Amino acid sequence: MNTKQIQYALALSETLSFSQVAEQLGITQPALSKQIQNIEKELGVKLFDRNHSPLTLTPAGEYFARNARELVYKEEQLRKALSQFSSGENGRLVIGVTPFRSLYLMPELVKKIRSRYPGVQVSLQETTSSQLRKEAAEGKYDLAIVNLPVDTSLLDVTPLEPDILALAVHNTMTGDLPAANDGQYLTVDFKQIQNLPFVVLSTGQELRQLFDGLCAAADVYPPIAAEVNGVTSAWAMARAGVGVALLPLQFVRSQHFDNNLSLYIVKSNLYSRQPVIVTRRGQVRTPYADFAIRLLTERE
To answer: Most buried one in 45, 48, 157, 245, CB count within 10 A?
Structure first.
């Protein structure tokens, strides 16, 4: 049983699809099936129940996947630790980040990393915060950026500058609210804008949870004009005058500001959140991962 066979079995345990894994790995389905049969023969147990549709893991397969994933992780950590004896000028840096945060944080960061380590390939894994927390705990990233809370028993945490969350209001909707153009913003009570239409993120996303929490705390429920999947879509809707959008101020500052918008901070501590850099606890960090963390923490 070699590392490649273990990785094949792990990939199959995650997707439970021979065709999908074969395509991902660039091999034929018969070749993949043969590798799985070989590892099952060597172990003397069936890892997958092929008689079930869709494919499922056997109890032995579930035990194997759980422990083999840890084995592969430890091998990767050993390789990284040994690589510290080299110059550290070449390698691959894997960063987990949400798509919207990637938009305003990553371009300058990657540019500086490439300038310092021209031989390093930076791989951005853009996904949801919940997926980032899960996969960071599995050691799939050199570092990831998420919001608190996180499981500190599994993850090492480095705080970043807190997010300030603002309301972007098109000037046609401000009414009696004071106008605040040119990127300036004022503080307002949520009840002052409770009748304005809102553009919100889809259910389950962190910004939506904050919005719902604020509504519940203030006992006001403004009309929803549109529900979108991403912060960039909410920003575009606000600029078009569709509705008010709750956005991270750092994101807004990274965009070409629209003077048709006014920004307001709501008088509520719900409208703040703490982003952090996370790595799996005890994970070996490369020189370029340390460099990236230093750049992120020294941004301001």
So the answer is: 245
Q: What is the CA radius of gyration of the chain?
A: 24
Dist CA 80 CA 42 (whole Å): 29
Token code pair at residue 84: 């510290």
> Could you tell me the pTM of the whole model?
0.64
- Note whether 94 and 125 are within 8 A (CB): yes
Tokens of 85: 């004896």
Counting DSSP H helices and E strands in the chain, the numbers are 10, 14
Assign 174 to helix, strand or coil.
Answer: coil
The residues near 187 (Cβ < 8 Å, ≥ 6 apart) are 264, 265, 266, 267
Residue 113, classed as helix, strand or coil, is helix
**Side chain identity at residue 120, one-letter code:** V
pLDDT in tens, 129-180: 889 999 999 999 999 999 999 999 999 999 998 888 888 999 899 887 876 5
Task: Point out which residues pair with 256 in neighbouring strands.
Answer: none
Burial 106-119 (b: 16+ CB within 10 A, else e): beebbeebeeebee
The two tokens of residue 41 are: 């023969």
* CB crowding 49-77: b at 16 or more within 10 Å, else e: eeeeeebebeeebeebbeebbeebeeeee
Q: How many CB atoms lie within 10 A of CB 246?
A: 22
**What distance in Å separates the CA atoms of residue 213 and residue 219, rounded to the nearest whole number?**
10
Token pair for 269:
């501590």
Whose CA is closest to 161, among 277, 256, 279? Answer: 277
Give 156's strand partners.
279
Q: How far is it, in rounded angstroms, from Cα 254 to Cα 107?
A: 11
The DSSP element (H or E) to which 104 belongs, if any, is: helix 99-116
Q: In sequence order, which residues have a C-beta less than 8 Å from that of residue 249 and are 6 or more positions away?
A: 163, 164, 165, 166, 185, 263
